[in-house]
Specification:
Layout lengths: L16 E7 L6 H13 L4 E6 L14 H12 L5 E3 L2 H5 L5 H11 L4 E7 L12 H7 L1 E6 L10 H4 L3 H8 L2 E3 L7 H9 L10 H10 L6
Parallel strand pairs: 1-2, 1-4, 2-3, 4-5, 5-6
Helix pairs in contact: 2-9, 4-5
Length: 218
Amino acid sequence: MDTWNIRAELNSIEPRRVGLLGGTFDPIHLGHLQMAQDALDRRELDEVCLIPCATPPHKRDSGLSSAEDRLAMIDAAIADDPRFSRSVIELERGGVSYTIDTVGALQRGAPEIEFFFIIGGDTLFELYSWKEIDKLIDSVAFIAVARPGFAFDGIDPDEMRLSVDQVEHLKRGLLVGHETDISSTDVRARVAEGLGVRYLVPDPVLEYIAERGLYRAM
């Protein structure tokens, strides 16, 4: 698949600035949505598009929930908020999901849209390992949502294994978001242990997890 009709998956009629947030979303939780909202508000985006991966590059044997379940939980989480949409581009492409391939396809499919790739601040130190990261940094603006207290100044580019220019490019996209310590791994573990996750995931997602019996057997 060389191009993708991203407009068919967006909610905005005339989006100009669209944030892209990728992940396994197994399950989607409030931390994901808070990060997306911070990016929307602070970078004046028209919309944030959530992109569930098919197979994550660094977690190929992770035993993900089905694409159907993960997509259904995303749909449940964002159903009443027109600022959010989701794309099945990586699920339909299949195989290992590389950001460089996805961003390239979306940009070719909608060259009039300015895309921004949203990541958590902790991911900055993993970018060196991403496929064709040099090309990716040159082709799309990043929005790195960091926790309060995160200090980018003084970080040695060698520590990030990127060039000085690349680090400066990433610094321009840094913003301080909410203090959120929620992970999908923790949510799954808590469900498996019979512990509550009501205030970690949106209520419709909680209901879906219960109805489908997800994460009970681990």
